Amino acid sequence: MGGQPLYLEPRLESRLRSLVHSPELLHTLTDALGSPLNVLVPDQLADNLARFRSVYGTHHLSGQVFLAHKANRSSALLRRLAATDAGVDVASLGELQHALGAGLTPDRITATGPKTPEFLWLAARTSVTVSLDTRDELEQLAALVRAHGLPRTRVLLRLSGFEASGVRVLTRRSRFGTAVRETAALLEAVERHADVLDLIGVAYHLDTTSLSEKTLALEGCLRVLEECRSRGLRPRAVDIGGGFGVNYLADGGQWERYTTALTEAVMGIRPPLTYGGHGYGLRNEAGTLRGALGLYPAHRPVAAAGYLDELLRRPAASLGGRTLAALLLEHLYDLHIEPGRALLDQCGLTLTKVLEVRDDEAGGPLHIRLAAKADDVALEDHGVLMDPVVVPRHPLNADGTGTGTDTGTGTDTGPGTDTGPDTGIGPDTGIGPGTTAGSGTGTEPVAAYLFGNLCLEADLITRRTVFLPHRPAPGDLLAFANTAGYCMDFHTTRAQHQPAARKVAAWQEGDRWRWCLDDQYWPTTPVGGAQ
Fold first, then answer.
1. Which of 388, 351, 349, 371 is nearest to 452 (CA)?
2. ∠ at Cα 104 (55, 44), nearest 5°?
3. How does pLDDT run across 473-501, given as a tens digit for each residue?
4. C-alpha–C-alpha distance, residues 175 and 267, integer Å
5. Residues facing 315 on adjacent strands
6. Strand positions, DSSP E, 183-291
7. Has residue 149 got a pLDDT over 70?
8. Where are the annotated segments for Disordered (predicted)?
9. Is 173 exposed, middle or buried (0-12, 13-18, 19+ CB in 10 A)?
10. Were 164 and a residue from 43, 169, 266, 425 both cysteine, which residue would form a disulfide, CB within 3.0 to 4.6 Å?
11. What is the model's pTM?
12. Minimal CA–CA distance to 176: which of 112, 120, 243, 83?
């Protein structure tokens, strides 16, 4: 492996760090339940919620935090959510049934996304708030409520196509919501069906983390709310959806070094950094760099609750320059949000067992085959590049030989090297870069391609060359951290009769980890009922 390893260390907070430091537990779980295996940490969800609530408190705002259910279909996470004061955003009939069964009351559920008549009926029957995308959807809901004698249904109008006056702000199109220029016709339909529909506010959905675009959208929503009031309607909320982002990496410098090196590799200045020369959207056309880097910005200094705080501090240029938070507060509007990825930050990891480690004949990166499919570890489907953590079955002695026991994860490299709970693995953990942990034939860093277990050339767990602190051995685990948001089961399949990953929920009791199957977890789960 030429040059310095281009690590992309995952950011691990205290719970996930502690879990990764429990190799005996993780190997016991995969030995019993198979690989891949998803391990969820429901209590982290409550901590993430508290951070968002803190932002509400800072700006003296009220409103609801709705978990975007589509991000993960875990029962444990949903039941833990039910034990808080938060709600859930459901986008299908099955998700609505799941939420109700997990203990969430209808006043804490909002229904979004494409809707079938059955989905609309159950939402109206149970008095769930419905976010309507089009006038046709509004008419369909009104007809159902009348035909079945259902209670008057609370609705939000989801809008799109926001435009700025003065300096033009480029906004991407969304297939969700009605264009703002058609608001008048939408409000006329609301007034016509006022006997069965109760308009409580407006909403938007933008597939972007651009603060400028979201500022423009929230300004547009505030103007529409004023139009509603001028018509005698009484809206009281605005739902700004999700897209608050996650900081996946411990070190921004690593991210900058990697993306620079990737560009150089595409241009032929250095050897390829990906399997087959994949450029992640970049290409070399006769010596000129073309395309755009199609990757999630994995190191984000401002993300999750911090992103919400920054958005609320933005001035509304078209509304007198007051901050968005001040305008919401002055009009006593509730602020609703629908984080998925951000609310599930640090809430789980995916374990995969190493099946085979092969040396490439050309002297290139190792070929590592895992007991998992690419769909089971869908980080790259979302453009997220992040190193897995090696969880060895046996630690190494100083000479690079295995001990044959499960008594630890490596040796400490000395005092003063720990970088704190919000950074990556760190040198003193025994499993990070530059350490002597693990099993195998040596402790030097290695470059590797990670392949899945399907009989398919395209089954690549990672397209990029992954740098590991040492050579893993068959039987070791690679733990992919922070996969709870969208990367566990959003894309998973049962191709070639390969099993989908099972799920377990884990929680701490003092310095000990306890666990149970995902479907068996409840906030009241007694100690005696779990492992």
1. 371
2. 45
3. 999 999 999 999 998 986 666 665 577 88
4. 36
5. 323
6. 197-204, 237-239, 282-285, 288-291
7. yes
8. 392-440
9. exposed
10. 169
11. 0.89
12. 112
Q: What share of the chain is helix, strand, coil (3-state, %, to 5)?
A: 30, 20, 50
In three-state secondary structure terms, 510 is coil
Largest CA-CA distance found in the chain, in angstroms, rounded: 80
Cβ neighbourhood burial of 402 (10 Å; 0-12, 13-18, 19+): middle
Average pLDDT score over residue span 396-404: 51
Percent of the chain with pLDDT over 90: 74
Dump the DSSP string for 461-496: S-SBPEEESS---TT-EEEEES-TTTTTTSS---GG
What pLDDT digit, counting tens, does each position of 62-92 carry? 999 999 999 999 999 999 999 999 999 999 9
CA 54/CA 242 separation, integer angstroms: 17
Q: Would you give the distance in Å from CA 242 to the centre of its chain? A: 11
CB 117 within 8 A of CB 144: yes
Candidates 361, 372, 364; CA nearest to 451 is: 372
The residue among 272, 271, 269, 250 whose CA lies nearest residue 464 is 272
Q: Provide the b/e sequence for 102-113 (b: ≥16 CB within 10 Å).
A: bebebebbbbbb
Give yes or no for a contact between 482 and 386, defined as CB atoms under 8 angstroms apart: yes
The CB density around residue 43, as the number of other CB atoms within 10 Å, is 15
- The sign of the CA dihedral 71, 75, 19, 491 is negative
